[in-house]
UniProtKB/TrEMBL annotation:
<dbReference type="InterPro" id="IPR000160">
    <property type="entry name" value="GGDEF_dom"/>
</dbReference>
<dbReference type="GO" id="GO:0005886">
    <property type="term" value="C:plasma membrane"/>
</dbReference>
<dbReference type="InterPro" id="IPR043128">
    <property type="entry name" value="Rev_trsase/Diguanyl_cyclase"/>
</dbReference>
<dbReference type="GO" id="GO:1902201">
    <property type="term" value="P:negative regulation of bacterial-type flagellum-dependent cell motility"/>
</dbReference>
<dbReference type="InterPro" id="IPR029787">
    <property type="entry name" value="Nucleotide_cyclase"/>
</dbReference>
<dbReference type="Pfam" id="PF00990">
    <property type="entry name" value="GGDEF"/>
</dbReference>
<protein>
    <submittedName>
        <fullName>GGDEF domain-containing protein</fullName>
    </submittedName>
</protein>
<keyword id="KW-0812">Transmembrane</keyword>
<feature type="transmembrane region" description="Helical">
    <location>
        <begin position="12"/>
        <end position="33"/>
    </location>
</feature>
<dbReference type="GO" id="GO:0052621">
    <property type="term" value="F:diguanylate cyclase activity"/>
</dbReference>
<dbReference type="GO" id="GO:0043709">
    <property type="term" value="P:cell adhesion involved in single-species biofilm formation"/>
</dbReference>
<keyword id="KW-0472">Membrane</keyword>
<dbReference type="InterPro" id="IPR050469">
    <property type="entry name" value="Diguanylate_Cyclase"/>
</dbReference>
<feature type="domain" description="GGDEF">
    <location>
        <begin position="97"/>
        <end position="243"/>
    </location>
</feature>
<keyword id="KW-1133">Transmembrane helix</keyword>
Amino acid sequence: MSATDWFSSGGWAVLVLGLAIVCLALGLARLALLLRERDRHNDAQITALRRELTGLEQGRSDLERLSATDPVTGVWNYRYLQQALAEELAWAVRDARPFALLLCEIDGFGDYTAAHGHQRALGTLRDLAQRLSVEIRSRDTFARYGGDEFVVLLPGARGDGAAGVAERLCYAVRRGLASSAGQQAATAGPIANGSAEPRLTLSIGIACFPESGEHAASLVAAADKALAAAKAGGGDGWRLAEIDAVLSE
């Protein structure tokens, strides 16, 4: 069959149809390519957005932690303590669960500051706070109450358990400062006025929920009273609020 006969018998229609099919296939391939490119672009944008959101969340978390951290000692601050104490009270009331509040104060810190200066005293305060914070459980709360005072919240603890923690905290200060004092004596001369090195120890007042109080104010007041008794007894020790209440009656 000649070309003329082939075209005249409808071959041209087949050719046109074939070309149309080829064009359609090319168009579909191009469309698929464009869709894949768009998907890759969208995936890249989504990944970038997720990365940015993760960074923002991390930044927000860091800011929240920074706002709740004491800048001098690096432990939780008073603002965080108020929130933690309110939450602990709510859980204790709801679940009838005990907990203990320890109010801690460094004995002799004023004399230490006068002898060594403000900057060194702040460094020592930070070292003490960090040393004490590692002596408690991860679920406990250790926060700076103000000045040279700290508060420890012990969920689930009763008098005996809280007393054991208090004894451990007192020993940590006694042991740590004895070691650092020996190192300082070997590298530094006597204090400028020739007086003895101020002795730093820890006094602690313990209040337990619900025996010592059922509200934040009453618990802190009971712990403060017990702390005063511990300091009146010479410091470097602890007192339990309910025992002090019994003795004072």
